[in-house]
Amino acid sequence: MGGKAANYAFLRATTPSATPPGVAITFDLWDAFLDQALPTGGTLRAAIAARLSAHSWPPNMLALDADLDAIRDLIRDVAVVTPAQRQALATALAGFEPTRRLRFRSSTNVEDGDTFVGAGLYDSETGCLADDLDGDDLGPSACNPNQDEERGMVRAIQRVFASFYRRNAVLERLRRGVDEAEVGMAMLVTYSYPDDDELANGVATVVRHVDGFAYDDHTLVTQLGAVSVANPEGGALPEVVTASVSNFGTYLTQTQSSSLLPLGAQVMTWEGDYRDLLGLFGTIADAWAPGAFTIDLEYKKLTGDALVIKQVRSVPQPDTTVDVVPLLVRSPTRYCVFQGEASDVFALHRSKSEWRLTAKDVWLDGAGQASSLYADVDATVVVGATTAQADGAPASFPGFAHEVDGTGTIDRLRIGAAPGRFALDTNVVPFVARNARPVLTLDDLELNLEVAWDQPVWFLDWDGPAQRTEEFVRMVPWCPDPTVDTTGLPYVERSLTEGAVTVDTAYWWPTEPGGIAAGYTAPLVKWGGTTITGLTTAPIELAGYWSQTYRPHHHNFGADYIFEPRLEPGLAAATLAELASADVRALHVIEDFGTTTMWIIGLDGALRPLTP
Question: Looking at the whole model, is its pTM more than 0.70?
């Protein structure tokens, strides 16, 4: 009975309250229809086979279109459904009200399978049982008085049969080498849903994960009324809702609004209809198959608030074998230190730098990794109370060395008078999956920065001030500068005080992720500015990238900050002199569960408490 009808039977067994009765017309009718004798001699099957035999992949499109037109004309206008077949069909469909329109839906064995979807290749048609039972061919249609001509079930069936030979369907079978003798058209018959009865319609994708425990990711694409979500007139945008469902709960997020509704409105009742649909989808997924899979479903909301599941099918999974060597393409990318839950605030501050890296065009195989992946390196780093910049091919930098380790490549180099040697540690993607994009840019690779300092540097560990000579930070292809658009992002303000010193600081976080999340630790997106009072006679105002460093504590229960006024352009000379006289290079602030602790970083980098 074909994929669509078989899957509908599955829906009837699992969600009968949301899946109205239907009837499957099996391949028996198709076979009998093709085996009928034509007035010109021979069978319809033989005539179709003769037309298709002249074509192989890739076909001559003009000749193929001409033959397909002729085949469809034979099916619609020459071949017939016999009186005995008409009677058998009327008996099979007797459970339907004869004056309600029926939908005759394609159900082939070359669609809705585990390896082939076939969506959109065939046609479904509307027919009226009463038009075939009234004994004449006179209109109007008994199911729709606005139709001047009858629209009987036989007419609908022959049109669905003819759609088996639409151009795209035949092209796909030719391309895949399908044997035409082994495929055919069955049908699923259900009531047709008039446009006026549809309050909403949509398509959902359900991804069942099994990663230690089962959970489902859903994407629901829904539109108002009967407006198509796939091919809307006038380009109307549908509503998109994502949802995660597990034993931890159900989490819904609207990611796009329907352009047919006022801003903020939903196509269906929020959240009730969506949760009801998710419950139905969960029942279907639980019965579908063991393990991980992806299915998509079609649904409607009808007048009276009835939710209907009209179709389910497997989404074939691509070949995920990872054996394709990707190509890294020349791509200039700007990197800055990631001010998030990585490393510690001292490493983030001392290693703070800006890198404009231009990749080579290179295959990421062994030969490609044997030399630097970069055609050009433009680096800016902190040197004392200012910054230093250098630009050129990696090999032109002092102390350059390249090596390949287990995860990628490392380029070691020195920059100006910076008191350390920098190492660009690039985690390479040596292979990608066969279904994945084989062309990569630097954004697709992970970049870390290691610094080997010439002299030990101070930091705080669990026991207090300590020293080390190597630090490690993560780099990201964006920088917290004035060009960052913060529209709609959370704006954070903190006022932190210890003794006579108060730090008022502000910054933006990224939007908190939706769905299943065991907490959220927000990195810095952009600074809003910092004011330090009580450390010097005049308040200190900081706004730049170099003078402010942020490192969040886990789940944002606090944060570490380092503020180094001498790296702020335009700061008053009197303020800088006052800080130098007090042996203050920077201020380290710890915010931890509502408690504030501050440390002074001296001119030599040594640490001492603000309040001894």
Answer: no
